[in-house]
Design a protein that fits this description.
The protein is α+β, with helices and mostly antiparallel strands and 155 residues long. It has a three-stranded antiparallel sheet with strand order 1-2-3, covered by helices on one side. The N and C termini lie far apart (82 Å). The radius of gyration is 20 Å and the shape is elongated. The mean pLDDT is 92. The protein is built from six helices and three strands. The protein folds into two domains: 30 residues; 116 residues, Sufe protein. Chain: A, CATH 3.90.1010. Helix 2 packs across helix 3.
């Protein structure tokens, strides 16, 4: 009898968890674009890069941190990667931005603004626009880091 009660309790718990997960998914889908959810759930270019040509870490106003690494081939970004301790929209912004800049020159990548990133993500809620701004600012800092390294090396 006790075993049956325990099984029913576990089954009830499983049903509750499934229901909560369904509610969370419905709320996310109502708030975020399919592109944001895809990038947040399956981020590309996530991870540290050894010996990058440019690197920066920026802390956003919300306390999240974005770290971006760039590797160059000549004057073009060959690969970009990111790390963050932030929310889903921050992950989505890092993923999309590092994908967007692959193959661009440093000047082209530095010209990307938060609005461009938000468009690429099919929108962001107003309360998460700062995530896009932080990602773009971090990329610009990584580019600046690379350029400063070049100036030091050319003296």
């Amino acid at each position: 009898m006790e075993v049956d009660v325990a099984r029913e309790e576990v089954a009830g718990f499983d049903r509750m968890v499934t229901g909560l997960q369904r509610q969370i998914t419905e709320q996310e889908e109502a708030l975020y674009s399919a592109r944001v959810l895809e990038e947040a759930r399956h981020p590309r270019n996530l991870g540290a890069m050894l010996d990058p040509d440019g690197h920066a870490v920026v802390r956003g106003p919300c306390g999240d941190t974005m770290e971006i690494f760039v590797r160059l081939c000549g004057s073009q970004i060959e690969k970009a990667a990111f790390m963050t301790d932030g929310c889903g929209p921050t992950v989505a912004c890092g993923s999309m931005l590092t994908t967007m800049v692959a193959g661009m020159t440093l000047d082209q990548a530095a010209a990307i603004d938060a609005g461009d990133l938000i468009i690429a993500l099919d929108g962001l809620p107003a309360e998460h626009v700062h995530c896009a701004t932080m990602a773009v600012n971090t990329l610009r800092e990584a580019i600046s880091h690379h350029r400063k390294k070049g100036e030091i090396g050319s003296e």
